[in-house]
Amino acid sequence: MVTARIPASIAPRPRPTRRALGGLALGALAAGLPGRAMAAWPDHPVTAIVPYPPGGNNDILARLLSPAVERALGQTLIIENRGGGGGTIGATAAARAEPDGYTLAFLDIGTLAIAPFLFARLSYQPESFEPLIRLTEVPLTVGVPAGSPYRTLQDLLAAAKAKPNGITYASPGNGTAGHLAAQMLVSLSGARMVHVPYRGSGPAVTELTAGRVDLLIDGTLLPAVQQGQLRALATTGPHRSPFLPDVPTVAEAALPAYSFLSWHGVAAPKGTPAPVLARLNAAFDAALRDPMVVERAKQLGLPLKGGTAAEFAAFASEERKKMEKLVQESGARVE
């Protein structure tokens, strides 16, 4: 017996069951949810992770910018300090957060450009984030206690060479910009000093002011210098800081090949929706131009930047190339 083949185009189709129809309806509803949820974003507070303790520039920037950002978004920005590991603990928490627009991170040169090459084991990578905006570009200050016997950078380096490991230098933690800037100073000068890492800039500045360490290179020293609590020996950028015009650069004072700039930015977990990223960039860019923010940043010695997410991504990529070479040359490594 021969069985006739019925063309698929005219073959009878089974009627969908009530369960199948219900499933299709639920699928359509689920497909529509992202659009409606996106339109409502943000409908509750946004968490901003600062991967350092209170007192450092990341924390200062978060608290300085948050009022203007909150006005733009219509929601509260909850600042959450998660220090430790040179910023890598907080950065890891941010990278692993849900990419729904409700978690941000105030990151920096240490977490986005230095840590991938400095740390033997790292629980995140720069690609774990969506860059949002660059906030600053900061020359660091080489500071000593007000009562320090070292009047110039040359004095300090000469003492370090005369008595190897007799001078201590603090940093905000292993892998931070201050650590690598000091390591660069050590490498180029040939001096040997003892590294004393702290959990953020705040504790490091406190210990320096008290005279319990000899040296700190950091971006938060300007107020203490202006108040006479610390002495600035040099700044780390290629040009003199407009905030300390009478203080020479490291290149002028002792090491012509030396130049180091720190920077800060905001990022979100990889996969955060593009419309959310666009709104966040616009909110932060506007906050960076707020007159009150600009004036306070000048008082703190923080040159503000701004711009697009794409510009920040390209900048951070180039910085990683520079930092990889610098870390290798310095021989610094955190196991």
The total domain count is 2
For the record, give the distance between the C-alpha atoms at the N and C termini, rounded to a whole number: 78 Å
Strand order of the largest sheet: 2-1-3-10-4
Give the CATH level 1 class of the largest domain: Alpha Beta
The total strand number stands at 10
Helix content: 40-55%
In the CATH hierarchy, the architecture of the largest domain is 3-Layer(aba) Sandwich
Q: Kindly state the mean pLDDT as a whole number?
A: 88
What is the string of helix and strand elements?
A: HEHEHEHEEHEHEHEHEHEHHH
How large a portion of the residues is in β-strands, by DSSP E? 15-25%
Shape: globular
Largest sheet: 5 strands, mixed
Query: How does the helix and strand content classify structurally?
Result: alpha/beta
- According to CATH, the homologous superfamily of the largest domain is Bordetella uptake gene, domain 1
Fill in the CATH topology of the largest domain: D-Maltodextrin-Binding Protein, domain 2
Number of helices: 12
Signal peptide: 1-39
Keywords: Signal
Organism: Teichococcus coralli
Pfam families: TctC
